[in-house]
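Researcher: For the annotation table, I need structure tokens for DNA topoisomerase 4 subunit A. Please keep the output clean. Sequence:
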Amino acid sequence: MPDDIKTPPPAPGAGPEGGNISETRLADALSERYLAYALSTIMARSLPDVRDGLKPVHRRLVYAMHQLKLDPAAGFKKCARIVGDVMGKYHPHGDASIYDALVRQAQEFAARYPLVEGQGNFGNIDGDNAAAMRYTEARLAPVAQAMLEGIDEDAIDFRPTYDGEEREPLVLPAAFPNLLANGATGIAVGMATAIPPHNAGELCAAALELIRNPAATTADLLRHVPGPDFPTGGVLVEPAESIAEAYGTGRGGFRVRARWAREDGKHGTWQLVVTEIPYQVQKAKLVEQIAQLLEERKLPLLGDVRDESTDVVRLVLEPKSRAVDPAMLMETLFRATALEQRIPLNMNVLDADRTPRVMGLVAVLRAWLDHRHVVLVRRSEHRLAQIARRLEILDGYLIVYLNLDEVIRIVREEDQPKPALMRAFEGLTEVQAEAILNMRLRSLRRLEEMEIRREHKGLTAEQKKLQGLLGSERKRWDSIAAELERTREKFGSGPLGARRTETGGAVPAVVVQEHAFVEREPITVILSEKGWIRAVKGHLAPEAEAGLKFKEGDRLSALLHAETTDRIALFATNGRFYTLKADAIPRGRGDGQPVRLMLELGNEDEVVSLFVWREGLKFLLASSDGRGFVARSEDLVTDRRAGKQVLVVEGGAEAAICTAAEGDSVAVVGENRRLLVFPLEQVPEMARGRGVQLQAYKEGGLADAKVFARAEGLSWRLGDRVRVETDLRPWRANRAGAGKAPPNGFPRSNRFGE
């Protein structure tokens, strides 16, 4: 480089490579860029337009297929070709996302009114994916054709594509209420949308109501639109008040249940068959979920589940037994599985000004009708311009027929026939002169003149009609109403238009106890004298008790029939109550486990009795010194391993008796072999304490106590026999008496149970 040529100094703020560097706060730079990203996501990706109900990718797919002339009457084309056109011309994103959007628009179980008709494997309700795009083919469905109606008649605006080489529509004309009919879902930055599908016939009826009565309320429209209409059917069980609030505010949700029926078999057997499942639930995962809960024993009323589906959903549910109530069985499944789903409603859309906002049902339908009004006006003006151009040419043709010889002379003799024609016939425009010069000789026949006059008359009548339409708002809305009637007849009737989701309102409540979700299995709890506890499956018969084996020197202390869902209460000599979950007790053929390892029980303390805890029961508690009271079962229960002190024992006494307080009389017998009978009402009901004196002793203490019904008499077991004493007058007295010798035949052990 010559010395006299020098590089100019960098400009202020310029970087080392010549780029401009400007200082800015990091917070400002981040907020500016994040806002731009958020707006791009909201407006160009995630939220649908309220006018046509489409996101940009869906709109570009439909328009690209229209450009490829894939009309419903045309042949199919490979999806790869469609995706390639969309990606190359309109949507510069990944081909996988474009193909996924195309597939979803063709799935009959995903879209209530598919915009695309597919040929090949487009997935199924089990959740299986569609085949690769090189294998599948597609074309537009009739619904998409209605969405495009008038697109070539200046009905909507176009804009340049991302590279400026093509043009794409800002919105489709949308002669079909696609937003609500097919619904939409999307997640943007800071906002989301979730609109379930609806019935097109009902939407058209509601729109007609809005045309007839512009002041119509949400309640007025709900007479026509009772709720969503899902492509997979189901039963809508949302209360009417909740539905009205959701449509009024644009936010809410709908509970949808599977449709089921009972099928009776031989010998009184039956099974339940599910024929419709909630929207967007994958059937294979649903069956897997039910099977998993069945394996975990969380569906005790269900015996088995089978999937017998073909192209029609058929899930077979077999009950555990014939005694199960079908409604109860289904209620447990609705609460535990995806057979009941809550479908959200969040009508957050872009309005006509491309502003995101949440709209109610009235606002959404009004926005669509306003769009149809704009489309009608623009199409009418476009058609009027076409008619005016054509009438201008036809007027020129008529001049030819009135002056045929002169026109022919000018064309043959003049070097510049166009100016000559315009000079010869005053009022002839340049457009007319050009059209005359372009006429063919065969058009000069008489028959052609008649056709031109007939066309001129028809166009003039159409022009007058369109001018009257544009001049009267009432006529425009009447035209839109007639169009809605045609749309309702085409898409709202027949198999496609029939409502699929039942709208029966809120279902009657079915009371399901908590234990209905847990497997209930009968067991027998066995406690030995040395404090070893275990459980065996089933309820042991009395003759089976003799076969029980224990450690050497140990024997049976108590045996209790229970179920795995029960709570077992244990009363110890220290006056404390302990509780164990039945399914936590060791099960098997072994010796079990020492109670002291499961509970904080002292080495000197022993379990006096055990029973199945039930709410609402009452028990008579007594210590060896003859003191006691009545306690409610709610005061005995505890989850602490240390138990709960209920009966207070003092002076070397210990808890001796815990018996059910079912009756009106109490019988107590002491170690001194004295029997006393007194009314139960003389024993107070307490939550904790020592109680009152039940029987007085000079020596010894309490041996046993029993609560019984006086009318039935006092019974006790003597060997294999049960003896009943009904005449208890010799032993009847007040509480705290000494008592008298028991009747002949009373057990020498001084206990009622032996």
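Researcher: And a one-line annotation?
Model: The radius of gyration is 44 Å.
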